[in-house]
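Exercise: predict the fold of this chain.
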Amino acid sequence: MDNQAAADRYSLFREYYDELVSYLTLKLRSRDHAMDIAQETYLRVMTQESSAPILQPRAFLYKTALNLAIDLFRKTKRQAEESLDSDDVQDALVVEADQHTRAETREQVRQLYEAILELPPRCRQVFLLHKFKDRSHAEIAAHFGISISMVEKHIIKATSFCRERFKDSI
């Protein structure tokens, strides 16, 4: 890329930087993530091999940024799913009990474990993050890119489902 093309791309980025960060902040619900994605967008634009002029510069920046945001979302989602495997669920449900109630407690833990596994994947992930990883509703909403209201609905659904499964045994 020649110096003029690099200068043009730099001025393009400076022209749209604030607008791009605002857009990404709305999409990602995090100004820090938005600024990171905007910076990565700049690096991608500057390191692009072609020295041809960009015909629709604003659209090009937004498309690049949106693709990077999607990559971030996929990576975050994959990490969340990996960190919430069944061993974590079982470990989190282990309850210390005296000798007399140990067998009963194990059965209840097993039933709760099975109930949680029956939940839809997103509902289960939200419930586990809230109940066993002590994440706030806002943190979970930002993590999955959903509203706080949707997080609350997932938690209510999971709690109700588990209560229904235990209503006869408690």
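Check your answer against the key: Residues 84-166 form a domain with the Arc Repressor Mutant, subunit A fold (CATH 1.10.10.10).
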